[in-house]
Design brief:
Bound molecules: farnesyl diphosphate
Structural class: alpha/beta
CATH class: Alpha Beta
Number of helices: 7
Distance between the termini: 22 Å
Strand order of the largest sheet: 3-4-2-1-5-6
Radius of gyration: 19 Å
CATH superfamily: Decaprenyl diphosphate synthase-like
Strand content: 5-15%
Length: 254
């Protein structure tokens, strides 16, 4: 009998952990003759709908890309709007998230964020830390490469402090990433039709399925997320191994 893959998600299961690149806010606003800020605001509503829909689809963890380390290069007004989204989202939704048992984790570098945003982030994480029904991870001032560099630095610091010995391996590096402790990322979704990772979850993407959807983020919700689950369940995940003997044909490498 072939050995079962060690990964927890069998082909017909899950996904448990869905990661979303919420793209298309600007185009959504432009198509309506509205300022980009309105697209981002509608994006917050879409995020609320998506978080609410996820548990019923069997998803236990959602990771979303809210602000990348590269987004600082946008005009100051738009950067300020994007920062403000955290205030809006947390102020308008924290009580509900808390009531519904959602743990909120913010991934990314705190250094460089406005002090009030950093304080909101700390408070939100502390208030919801005990929740275990569902996890929402918001990548904010996040870059996949920076996160890997930070994890390597953490390991070096631990070695220098005598808390760890080398050599650095995958387990030790993974433990230093900001996603440490979350279930493996099963699927990474990008909306708006663009097809790239844009520095999101580079380490975690190793064996994630990729799904590209043509919906613009402000139009996202339960239906689009259900479509992700259906696409995922039709994928054949092999983690570098071979397909199960009773799986459908179409065998390719990898
Ligand atoms: C990409 O659209 C989207 C962003 C850079 C920000 C995403 C943020 C939200 C959806 C709001 C929720 C976030 C938080 C932190 C609560 P774009 O501006 O690149 O769109 P375009 O490609 O159409 O121009």
């Amino acid at each position: 009998m072939p050995a079962k893959p060690s990964h927890p998600a069998a082909p017909t299961d899950g996904p448990r952990h869905v990661a979303l690149i919420m793209d298309g806010n600007g185009r959504w606003a432009q198509a309506r003759g509205l300022p980009r800020a309105m697209g981002h605001r509608e994006g917050v509503q879409a995020l609320k709908r998506t978080v609410q829909a996820a548990p019923a689809l069997g998803i236990t963890c959602l990771t979303v890309f809210g602000f990348s380390t590269e987004n600082w290069s946008r005009p100051a007004e738009e950067v300020s709007d994007l920062m403000g989204l955290v205030r809006t989202y947390v102020a308008s939704d924290l009580k509900r998230l808390e009531r519904e048992g959602v743990r909120v984790r913010i991934l990314g570098r705190r250094a460089g964020l406005p002090a009030d945003i950093a304080a909101i982030i700390d408070r939100t994480e502390a208030t919801t830390a005990h929740n275990d029904r569902f996890t929402l991870q918001v990548a904010f001032n996040y870059g996949g490469r920076a996160d890997i560099v930070d994890a390597a630095r953490r390991h070096v610091d631990r070695v220098l402090a005598g808390e760890a010995t080398g050599p650095l391996d995958e387990q030790a590096l993974g433990a230093g990433l900001s996603t440490a402790g979350a279930p493996p990322v099963d699927v990474i979704v990008r909306t708006s039709g663009e097809q790239r990772l844009s520095n999101f979850l580079l380490w975690e993407a190793a064996y994630a399925e990729l799904v590209y959807q043509h919906v613009l983020w402000p139009d996202y919700g339960a239906e689009a997320l259900a479509d992700v689950v259906e696409q995922y369940r039709n994928r054949d995940r092999r983690f570098g191994g071979r397909a199960a003997p009773n799986a459908a044909p179409a065998l390719a490498a990898g």
